[in-house]
Specification:
The complex is a heterodimer of chains A (389) and B (453). By secondary structure, chain A is mainly α. Chain A has helices at 8-14, 16-22, 36-43, 57-67, 85-88, 115-127, 132-139, 143-162, 168-177, 221-228, 236-241, 246-254, 275-278, 282-293, 298-330, 352-355, and strands at 112-113, 180-181, 198-200, 261-262, 269-270, 331-334, 343-346. Classes of the chains: A mainly alpha (389), B alpha+beta (453). Chain A: This is Ribosomal protein S35, mitochondrial.
Chain lengths: 389, 453
């Protein structure tokens, strides 16, 4: 294509910044006022169709949308969410949870913990020395989240003490954009942050099983678990001893080995337990049962519950200590005085589990003749799979 | 890896990004038609649309190895329901419970399993950083990781494809987060930054030459000057300071940004000047409360006699509306220390004990204004050396993308988050954030299921 002769006004439209900045001192004050259409006509004399005005149709449409309907999304509204679904909501706002994606009705923007609630969690766990389980039930926060909050607040305190940079304005802005669960006022009931008794769906329960049971017989969760895991039905005397599935929770807490096994060798698996055992807070079911049994004795029921929780904590603590002691027994720590490092020495274990049946397994430690180091084997992925805390 | 994740308007693909192009694309996205199209075609286009959003930075083969047809789900249990029934009610009759006036005994909403197809990708470090709102796109998050700005459990992790384990704590450098989520610098600000950098360079070289000479000379006369002039100009200084603070706090959107910045800078300098008069040399680095009390002491300011509590609500459109809330947070955080107001009153008590003439009387509102301006100056200062526009403001169109999924617990103050557990589906909702509905999620799941039955 031969070069086109450009009029002066065209170069002017190409450099809008120049004209905008120097318009006051420009020798030709009329130049910016020249319309771009006339310049386009000059430069493309042979085309009959209207030239695009520096923008494609799609771009023009986008900016049109951004300047009209989408203008509200430019800045956030403190204290409320500002999602695309706002456009489709006509009429009064319902009590529905906010949805960020207009096409996906099953994803919600869930509230996050407010700053005060976070500090309250830390206060109760670290300063009042309450157990994570109790704080979880009191505030309606998942136990894993409570552990994470304590860890994060601890880290924040340390960083503040060290004078490390913080992102305070950012935190403020995020808490204005995202729904939050506030800390209840003194004397008010705390709103639950999230469901705390989530039962994970076990893969065994995915199968559909035809299991005939007489209509006259009651078939409860304990028996259903046995059917799903392929265990034989319980003896009548054994079944009669269980008045309610939550009885098993107490039993398993005391003796985790009381859960039976099905299958042999590598296929051996534990019998699927009822939901009462597998939920994070089995003691809540026991409390509800006490309430049903003694509806008029609230104080006695509460007393019983606190004793139950204390007992559970004591048992769990003892178990943790036992595990820790066993681990320490196997481990010798040597820390030389002038060294930056501690040396943890463990006995190597050469069994079929570690070295494999042919003695070449990669799990076992140490150098073995004919077994290349893991780094040297082909196709070895070097990306770490875990980072020790 | 070449970045193909552009926000083209012609293709209209949705990406993991906060750009306005993406917002527009998300808004106009319609599910591809299914009439007159084979199942293969339907699955293909569903896969194409969802892979453009989920793990676009992951190769297809890599993702196929990660895919798992088994999807995690939970059912929230009600303790009182469990206590009331041992399960025999649900299995009574012919095995599915006896109807109560035509309704089944237990009603549940369907669990959107297929919305969870891309759950394994949410374990990736780069995606988790994007989900925790620490980066404005998954690509940017990836860059942060590669550039060494991210730690996992306290150790630098340079692999964006690191799969987080439940309980892992990851942290991004706060400056990177502020850069990713803040306004970009204007050309004016960039120029200011350049100039200040140049000035700092010059100052450094000057200092080295003339440090020893200046120190000895300037000490004594400066002290005398300060003592004499202090009494005279306290009133004027306070007045000027207040006027500046007011103008700083009240400017909304309609004033030009450069002008506001000039005001801010002026205020900052004025406060520094006043504080540098104090005897102790640590005030400038001290806490906000100490600074404020020192300031009031130096100016011999006194609160007016009527201590009427007045809540000044910031206007939402005010760009500096954070400041007041920040002050609240700051005062609530100082739980072990004496509260700010106590310190204030202490300062006043000291001032009155000194039997100095009352230089000026301030109303509560004026005190608040001064305090707010100070808070903002500390928490969100004007600093041209930063890579983002200061004082920090959230970037445009950010709020439309701002949500934090349940499987993360985020502490924004230190830009750290904990990956609590793997995302799960529950009746009526799925935890994997995906902009697509069932008509895309299910065919896409079907695409990756093939040869797996």
């Amino acid at each position: 294509m031969p070069p086109r002769i450009q009029s002066r006004s065209v170069s002017n439209t190409l450099l809008p910044y120049l004209t905008a900045n120097s318009s006051s001192s420009s020798t030709l004050p009329s130049l910016p006022s020249l319309s771009s259409t006339s310049s386009q006509c000059l430069s493309r004399q042979f085309s009959a169709t209207a030239a695009p005005q520096g923008q494609t149709k799609l771009r023009r449409q986008m900016f049109e949308w951004l300047n009209n309907e989408g203008a509200g999304f430019k800045h956030h509204l403190p204290g409320e969410t500002n999602y695309l679904t706002r456009l489709k909501q006509r009429g009064p706002e319902g009590s529905e949870k906010p949805r960020p994606f207009p096409n996906n009705p099953s994803f919600f923007s869930e509230p996050v913990l407010s700053e005060e609630l976070r500090n309250e969690v830390y206060n109760r766990v670290v300063e009042q020395k309450k157990s994570v389980r109790i704080v979880s039930v009191e505030l309606g926060i998942d136990m894993k989240r409570i552990a994470a909050v304590v860890r994060l607040v601890e880290l924040e305190k340390r960083q503040r003490a060290q004078g490390k940079p913080l992102a305070l304005p950012y935190a403020r802005a995020i808490h204005e954009m995202v729904p939050t669960t506030p800390l209840a006022e003194q004397g008010e009931r705390q709103t639950y942050h999230e469901p705390i008794n989530d039962l994970p769906a076990h893969p065994l329960t995915g199968s559909q099983i035809f299991y005939p049971v007489p209509e006259s017989r009651s078939f409860n969760r304990v028996e259903a678990g046995r059917v799903f895991s392929g265990a034989p039905a319980m003896e009548h005397s054994e079944a009669a001893a269980i008045s309610h599935p939550s009885d098993l929770a107490e039993k398993i807490l005391e003796d985790p080995n009381s859960i039976g096994w099905v299958g042999k060798g590598a296929n051996a698996r534990q019998i699927l337990q009822p939901a009462d055992v597998r939920i994070p807070h089995p003691h809540m079911v026991a409390l509800e049962r006490d309430r049903l049994a003694h509806p008029n004795e609230r104080l006695a029921v509460a007393d019983l519950q606190s004793k139950r929780l204390e007992r559970q904590d004591a048992i769990e603590q003892a178990r943790r200590e036992r595990v820790q002691a066993r681990r320490e027994k196997k481990l010798t720590v040597v820390s030389p005085e002038d060294s930056r490092f501690d040396y943890r020495i463990k006995d190597t274990i050469y069994t079929t589990e570690t070295t494999g049946t042919d003695g070449r397994g990669s799990k076992a430690v140490g150098r073995r003749y004919g077994v290349p180091h893991r780094d040297r084997t082909r196709g070895e992925v070097k990306i770490p799979t875990r980072v020790e805390a | 890896m070449r970045n193909r994740a552009s926000n083209t308007l012609s293709k209209g693909k949705i990406r993991q990004s906060w750009s306005k192009y993406n917002l527009y694309n998300m808004q106009r996205f319609r599910s591809p038609p299914t009439t007159n199209r084979t199942f293969f075609q339907q699955k293909w286009s569903a896969k194409a649309a969802s892979r453009a959003y989920h793990g676009e930075q992951v190769r297809e083969g890599q993702w196929k190895r990660m895919f798992n047809h088994r999807i995690r789900s939970v059912i929230p249990m009600n303790a009182s329901d469990l206590a009331a029934d041992d399960g025999s009610l649900v299995s009574s009759g012919r095995g599915s419970g006896l109807d109560q006036d035509g309704k089944p005994a237990y009603q549940t909403r369907p669990t959107p399993y297929t919305h969870m197809t891309f759950a394994p990708l949410e374990r990736r470090l780069d995606v988790a950083i994007f989900r925790a709102l620490f980066a404005s796109s998954a690509r940017q998050a990836r860059q942060f990781v590669i550039h060494g700005a991210v730690t996992v459990n306290g150790q630098t992790m340079k692999h964006p494809s690191y799969l987080l384990n439940p309980g892992d704590l990851f942290q991004v450098e706060p400056d990177r987060v502020l850069y990713a989520t803040g306004h970009t610098k204007t050309p004016f600000e960039r120029r200011q930054g350049r100039l200040s950098r140049r000035r700092a360079k010059l100052d450094k070289s000057d200092e080295v030459e003339a440090a020893s000479e200046v120190e000895a000379e300037s000490k004594e006369p400066a002290k005398e000057d300060a003592k004499e002039t202090q009494k005279e100009d306290t009133k004027e200084t306070l007045k000027a300071l207040l006027a500046q603070a007011k103008s700083v706090m009240s400017t909304g959107k309609n004033t030009l940004a450069p002008q506001r910045k000039q005001e801010l800078r002026g205020f900052q300098q004025a406060v520094r000047r006043v504080l540098s008069r104090s005897e102790s040399s640590t005030v400038l680095a001290d806490s906000l409360e100490a600074q404020f009390s020192q300031l009031t002491l130096l100016l011999k300011a006194k609160r007016a006699e009527k201590p009427v509590k007045k809540d000044v609500k910031p206007r939402p459109e005010d760009a500096f509306a954070y400041a007041e809330r920040d002050a609240e947070v700051a005062s609530s955080k100082a739980d072990t220390e004496v509260t700010a107001s106590d310190k204030l009153s202490d300062a006043f008590a000291q001032a009155t004990l000194g039997n100095e003439v009352d230089a000026s009387e301030l109303s509560d509102e004026e005190f608040d204004t001064l305090k707010r301006a100070l808070t903002q100056m500390r928490d969100n200062p004007l600093d041209n050396s930063k890579t983002y526009s200061t004082p920090w403001q959230p970037r445009q169109y950010m709020s439309a993308f701002a949500f934090i999924p349940r499987y993360l617990e985020v502490n924004q103050n230190i830009c750290a988050a904990v990956y609590l557990r793997h995302p799960v589906a529950r009746p009526g909702s799925a935890e994997v954030p995906t902009p697509f509905g069932e008509s895309i999620a299910t065919p896409a799941y079907g695409w990756y299921l093939r040869r797996r039955w």
